[in-house]
UniProtKB/TrEMBL annotation:
Its EC number is 2.3.1.-. GO terms for molecular function: acyltransferase activity. This is GNAT family N-acetyltransferase. The keyword Transferase applies. Keywords: Acyltransferase, Transferase. It is an enzyme of class 2 (transferase). It comes from Bacteroides gallinaceum. It holds the Pfam family Acetyltransf_1. InterPro entries: Acyl_CoA_acyltransferase, GNAT_dom, NAT_camello-type. Residues 3-155 form the N-acetyltransferase domain.
Length: 155
């Protein structure tokens, strides 16, 4: 099987969009997504990786690398990691994660982090299998619905 990991290009936007919508279990606004994607393509602190199989993007990992005051160092954060449902359980997520770790280290990052919804228990197991530890809580407030405290995927 012909497969590779590569940095995303502008014309990968629709494939990344489909993967992220699948991960979020909802259709995101395409116009806004395209604006953000194109801005990230020009931002040196962002790196979007594509796992391509037989010429088709079947996985993506979006990484942000930035200096953070509370670490006094450069940190990498996985913003999104998604593998097409039909391509799961082939080690694609592991390969994307390992590649992202290498790129982050090469960029001078001292740590890699990920924030993951509490409902994504399969993802938690995946990250623990990669050697990550759950040391943090993340709090959020939806400005559009501040009284909505229900945790659900696709929110």
């Amino acid at each position: 099987m012909n497969a590779c990991i590569r940095e995303s290009k502008a014309d990968d936007c629709k494939a990344v969009y489909a993967l992220i919508c699948s991960m979020e279990e909802k259709r995101l606004p395409l116009t806004e997504f395209e604006k953000i994607y194109n801005a990230q393509q020009k931002d040196a602190s962002c790196l979007c990786l594509i796992y391509e199989q037989e010429g088709k993007a079947v996985g993506c990992l979006n990484l942000r690398m930035e200096y953070q005051l509370h670490h006094a160092a450069k940190i990498a954060e996985i913003m999104e990691l998604s593998v097409d449902a039909h391509a799961r359980c082939q080690g694609i997520g592991q390969k994307l994660y390992a590649y992202a770790c290498r790129k982050a280290k090469e960029s001078g990052c001292i740590q890699i982090e990920v924030c993951c919804n509490r409902l994504r228990t399969r993802a938690h197991k995946f990250y623990e299998t990669q050697g990550m530890h759950n040391f943090h809580y993340k709090f959020s407030l939806d400005f559009l619905s501040p009284d909505d405290s229900e945790n659900r995927l696709g929110k």
